[in-house]
Write the structure tokens for this entry.
Amino acid sequence: MSKIIMESQDFKSRIETLKKKIDVLGLQKRAGEIETEMGKPEFWQDQERARHLTQELSEIKKDLEELKKLDSYLTEQNFLALEKILKSLELKTFLSGHYDKNNAILSIHAGQGGVEAMDWAEILQRMYLRFCERRNWEGDVVDFSPGEEAGVKSVIITVNGPYAYGYLKGEAGVHRLVRQSPFNADRLRQTSFAKVEVLPEIEETPEIKISENDLSWEFFRASSQGGQNVQKVSTACRLRHKPTGIVVTSQSQRYQEQNRKIALSLLRAKLWSLQKSQVKIEKEKLKGEVKIAGWGNQIRSYVLHPYKMVKDLRTKTETSEVEKVLDGEIDNFVEAELKGVV
């Protein structure tokens, strides 16, 4: 049997399997529902909801269009284009979580190690922003706590893009860096840690109720990377949720109202995470498996010295092209985690 015939049969089998997993009729029905909503005069009154729906419709139409192309590419034996589209659609079948389609809120926190750890946190910040750029997602720094000498103590990035949370949720955990220290005259080998948290952006929902009486607002002049324009007046917001003690800050936007909306979005995500953690703890109590939360859940190691290697400790995915990874090329790691590759 020729190689072309074998490849053609393999692609045909993959396409059939994909179509069984993807609910095409369901996608078409959802697209129709959104288009009906968009036709209503009051659609743009809630701009946040309108933005989410237009983004969802755009992604659905893209998926439906690409599904149509599969059979024609197979007939034309355009295997290169077919593989690209097929791989993208196959990956989405792993994104079936309740909030996987949502935007994401990604936080990076420097671990112990002073300036070394804070510099590492800033390197990770750049890595994720570059990853967003490569996927044509919008990544915005909404809160930023600079290090005393270099780097960042912590940073919060909102990521707006289709399935942003689904793709990024596997990045949560501790990231370890091994390198020769650029802050030490003797260039000693140094190990640094930073923790990444990933939460979904959640719209107002009955499951997560926020009472205005439970909120304490504070407004101040921004000190983040927002530039001079946001530092002239008290546009930045610090929001405290009295019942839980959760505090969130937003200081990237020029107008106070924009920062208020972002702060509320951050709070909803934090409350969702808290609820999820409490449910998990209750389940563990019933099983007698309660574990203390800590820094032990290391997921990936980035070694720059004495050799070069990035290795994911969960999927065993690795590469020696460290510079590319730190420039945002983390797709192989993200996809392996989604597929549960070991």
